[in-house]
Amino acid sequence: MKNDTICAISTPLGISGIGIIRLSGPETYRIIEEIFVPKKKTKKVSEWKTHTVHYGYIMDGEKIVDEVLVTIMRAPKSYTREDMAEIGCHGGLIALKEVLNLCIKKGARLANPGEFTLRAFLNGRIDLTQAESVLEIVNSQTEKSLEISLRKLKGEFSEKINKIREEIFDLLTNIEAKIDFPEEEDVSSYSIDIKRRVEKIKEEVERIIEKAGKGKILYEGVKASIVGRANVGKSSILNRLLKEERAIVTEIPGTTRDILQEVINIKGIPVKIIDTAGIRKPKSKIEKMGVEKAIEWMEKSEMNLLVLDGSQRLKKDDEILLEKIKEKAYLIIINKIDLPLKLKVDYLKRNFPEERIVFVSAKTGEGIDKLEDAIYRLICEGYGKIESSEFYINVREEELLKKIRDNLKNITENFDNLSIEVTAEFLKESLKNIDFITGRNFSQEILNNIFSKFCIGK
Quick check: 273 and 265 in contact, CB under 8 A? Predict the structure, then answer.
C-alpha cells in the first residue's frame, strides 16, 4: 500500500445542504493546517484532540473558498486506521470541487474507488467480508436487507467462518502430528473420530450456505413480471403497489410499449416488478417489439403476475397467458372489481388453486394489501420461511463456501479409501479457501475486482 494521502468527495454530487470531502493518510493534518483557518485559533491542527469538530473557513491564499466544519479522527481510531479528516462543505458542485482541488494542490491525490475501505481492510480494521458488506449496505433496498448487511459488517458472518477455521485447523494439526510421528501413535485408531469431526464441520458449512440462500432473497430480492392483455390495468396495479404514480396510465390500449422496472418492498423483501407491454396482436413495429419483450421477461422472471379484466369475459389472449404462466410461480390478479363482474371465476377456480387468485381494484385500492400478502406467500412457498435472522453472502463467498463443502464431502464420502495424507490435503485446501473468504489470503486481482465496484469516497 502506498504511504500517501488520499482525498475524495464522499457525498453524491448535486445541490444539497452539505457535501463531505474525506482525507486519509500521513499528510492529512499538514494539508488541513495549510488550507483551514478556524474561527477560534487556539492550537495547531496537529494538537487538536481526536474526534473533535472545528468551525472555520477553507482558504486559498487570501480567498475564502467555503465556510466549513472540519472533523478530526486520529489513527488508529479512524475508519482507515490512518489519520483522517472530513471537511463538511456547503452542498453544491462548485464549492466541493474547489475544496477538493485545493487538497490535491497541497499534496493529496484523488482516491481510487473504494480506497478508503481498502485501507481499512489492509490496515486490519475489518476483514474482507466486512469490507464487502460496506458496499452491500450502500446498495440495500429494504430495511431487512440493510439489517442483514449491518450484521455482516459487525462481524457475525466472519465469526462463523473463523470458528470453522479453528475447528479445521485443530483437526489438521492433530492429523499432521500423527503423520510426523507415526511410531508414537496409531493413526488408524483415530479414523472414526476424524470422520465424525469432518462430518460435523461439513454440516455447519451446509447450514451457512442454506441460511445465506434465504438472506440472498432479502438482499437481492426476486423478479416478478406483471403481464396481461392491453388495458387490463397492469400499470395501475404497479402504481398501487408502489404507492405512487410512476407508470403512465391512460384509457388507450397499448400505452405501455417499453419495459418499466421498479422495486417494491414486500414485508422486507425487495421485489423487482417489471411492467410489460400489453399482450395483443400488435398494430405497429414498436408494439410488436414491446410484446416480444414482455414474453421474454415472463421467461426471465421468477414469478409472473397475470392481470385479468374482471369486467370482461376471458379473451383468447387471456387463455394463452393462463397456460403460459403455469411454467413459473404465478398469481392471477382479477382487476376492476369495482365494476360488475363478467369474468367466469368458477372456471378459474376449477383450473387453478384458489390461493393463487386475488381480486383487486386498482382504481379504489381494494384488495391491494391481499395482493401483497399473496406475493409474500408465493416467495415463501419457493424459498421457505424468510426471517431477518438470515444473512447474505455474495457470489464470491458462496463459491468458496461450496468449495469448502465439497472438499469436506470428499473426505466423508471416500473416507475408507483415503490415506491420512490425502485427508490432510483436503483440509489444507479448505483452510486456504476460508482464508480467501476473510482475506487472510488475497491477490491484487481479487482486491481490484472487489473495490472497483465501490464509489469514489467510500
Answer: no
